[in-house]
User: Fold this.
Amino acid sequence: MKFSRGSAYLLLCVITLALFLLFLRQSGHSYPSRLLLSGSYIARNEDLERVNIFVHPEKYPILNNLIVLPKTHQSELLQKNRQLYQHDKWVETFPGLLLHSAFETEKYQQKFRKNVRILALGHPYALNISEILCSFKNNETTWNESYVTYFSFRQNSKETLIPYTFVCSYHIEDKPVQVSLQKGNFKNITHWLTIHHKEKSEQKREISVCTPPFYNNFNDTRLLAEFLAFYDAAGVSSFTFYDYDISRDVRSYFDLLNQEGMNITIIPWNIPTSMASSVWNYGQLASIQHCLYRNSERTKFVLLVAVDEFLVPRQHFSLVELMSELSSKSKRKIGSYVFRQSFFCLEAVKMNSFSLYTSDRIDKIWPPKIKSNVMVRPETVIEGGIYYVRKHVKGWKSAKVPWQLALVHHYKSCPKQNHTKVTQ
Assistant:
């Protein structure tokens, strides 16, 4: 069964409310009547038929065969993002070091100087950091800066390739447009990074979501539909996905939703195949830093989750309301909020059914920083992490959110675990 652009979008609208109400049931909510008009599509579109879907969802049954998309040779959305980020790609500049992208920042700023953060992957035993210099280029000249600092992000001791952020400083009057790292003379530089200069948005987005890189020809459009429908209804404004290896069907699905107004960005993530297994989860920590850098000053909060992880507010009707209350009640400067996880077991899901239909979960609610997810103010972070922020800008702290306020439902296989049916 093939879906046109309109029917694929219509189906996403249908499941948005159904899945959100299902989550509310799992988290102990009643169903207030105003939820029947929840979802950003209603605010964006006056079409009465779409409003009718939300008011009378029983008229539009959810189809079992959720997404079967026509194959396309090329994704329009991916091509668009490649044009926007055509200078951002993994390139080995010299043995032991790959560079990806560069972002201007005001953090670590000295008087009359600005900084650029360079996202990199490196072999820690092959690099001699003391030999590395920053090189800048503007429209008139090229020059070296000797002062370089860096942060490394190791997730596992067995990694032989780890993410780095190098910080290069320049005088505010120099106004460089490109930057690179090099050993020796800058005449030998073969790859320059275009600097993404910070642009403050007049109106920040409320919440953006970033996920780890997709790999192994990712093709689970059913899970993606659940993920996007839920978070759209929960108030998320934009989504960023990292494409190491996704299928044509998934790219087509992204295209359809993007054309209908959903804010989706795909970042090409071309880590060399020979190196991909040497870095944790296809460079997940590097993608986290990239997500935080590019969303700084664009969005108030960034939520870092995988596509099988759903942050469920238990006492609020949306994540926007939850974060608004957490922010207003805090007396400290909170740069990140840590949410605990609970595993929901896919063994209880019937064939061709949505994973969110299961209410079987493991009794254990995991401790923060062990199995947890984080909601971040991106401009307050120096070192991002998978389960928590590793380092904040001076003066900013992390806060642990009680699971009674919000809990991450992680839908996964857990055949050897004792699990119980959720009743509240």
